[in-house]
Predict the 3D structure of the following.
Amino acid sequence: MSEQQPSLMSQRFRGYFPIVIDIETAGFNAQTDAVLELAASILAFDEQGELSISKTHHYHIEPFEGANLEQASLDFTGIDPYNPLRGAVSEKDALHDLFKHVRKAMKAQGCHRAILVAHNAAFDQSFFKAATTRSGLKRDPFHPFVTFDTTTLSGLALGQTVLAKACMEAGIAFDNKEAHSALYDTERTAELFCHIVNQWKALGGWPLATPPAEEE
């Protein structure tokens, strides 16, 4: 993408590339509790300027050495951290692979930074940043603190803050039996974010309307 023709993605989000994230954990403390699943949806605009999911990457994660595992959290998600059929990888391997895909997508669209999108983004970002720090990865493409929170956005756009209810209000099918899987929740959150962005465009909020010229 040339400098003379910036991509719609780089224009729409001021050079940021939104990456939709969901993380399943073994507790609520990002410093002590294990990350068990990570999924990330990369988005793209089509020729009509509609935003949708381009690709989703999904990783089962091995608990880091010394990680705390809260049984109540394991019971809630139904994840067995030590099931060999999970095909789990280390936090470092998962993040290294994800960062590679994110940087490639950013470069293709002329964006300079990724921005994390999540439902209750502060929770996911805290675990995401803690895992990145533990992994010792230096080339983190994500903004250090700015996020898009679909909880807030859906509260504004749809009058709902719970993911399942916001999806239903937006006409997005949501199966509660599939929820609390990083892959499922990420893709529903991504669809919700895309719906809100596309709805705002349909209502005339983007592109910004040019004000009428004043008569002399």
